[in-house]
Amino acid sequence: MTSHRDELLNHEYDGIREYDNPTPGWWHTLFMGSVLFSCLYLFFFHVSPLSWSVHDQWESAQVAEYKRIFGEIGDLEADVQTVLEMRQNEQMMAVAKGMFVGNCSSCHFNEGQGNNGANLTDDVYLNVKTLMDVYSVITNGAKFGAMPAWGERLNQNERVLLTAFVANLRGTHVPGGRAPEGDPIEPWPELQP
Length: 193
Known about the structure:
By secondary structure, this protein is mainly α. It has helices at residues 25-46, 54-70, 80-88, 90-103, 105-108, 131-140, 156-169; strands spanning 8-13, 16-19, 124-125, 183-184. A two-stranded antiparallel sheet has the order 1-2. A two-stranded antiparallel sheet has the order 3-4. Helix 4 (90-103) crosses helix 7 and helix 6 crosses helix 7 (156-169). It starts with 7 loop residues before the first strand and ends in a 9-residue tail after the last strand.
C-alpha cells in the first residue's frame, strides 16, 4: 500500500469527500494487455492472409459433406436420363428437399404450392415446356429476375437434384396453392432402362 492511500482530496461535493485511491497497477497491466491483444487480433483476422474464419471452416465442412453425399454418384450430367434417375433416388431427393427448403421455399413454400413464386404442384407452367426447361429456369432464372438465376450459387449436381425434386412436385396439387399461370404441358418422360 502506498502512503497517500489515506489522503483526502481537496474537493468536496454535497458534504462528501473522497480518498485518493489510484487504480492498481495490475488493472493497468490487464487493460494494456487487452488493447495489445485487440490490435494483434484485428491485424491477424482482418488483414493477414494467414488468418482463418468461421466462413472458411463452414466452406471446408460443406466441401467434405458434398464429397460424402455426391461421392458415390460423382458428377451428374444435366440431361433428361440423369434427372429421371435422380427422381427415383430417395436419398438424393431428401438432400434435394433440404436444398429446396433452404433456397426456394421463401417464394414457392415448402410444398411448392407457391407464394410470390410459381405454383410447382400443378400441370400448368409459364416458362417450362420440357423437363430440361426446369433445369434451365433454375440455372438462368426467369421473368426478368423474379426467379433468380442459381447457376452461380449452386453447383451442377445441386441444380440437377433440384430439377428432379421440382419434377416430383408436379401433380401433387397441394391445397392453398397459387393460381395457375401459363399453359398445360405434356407429362414428363418415363425413365428408360
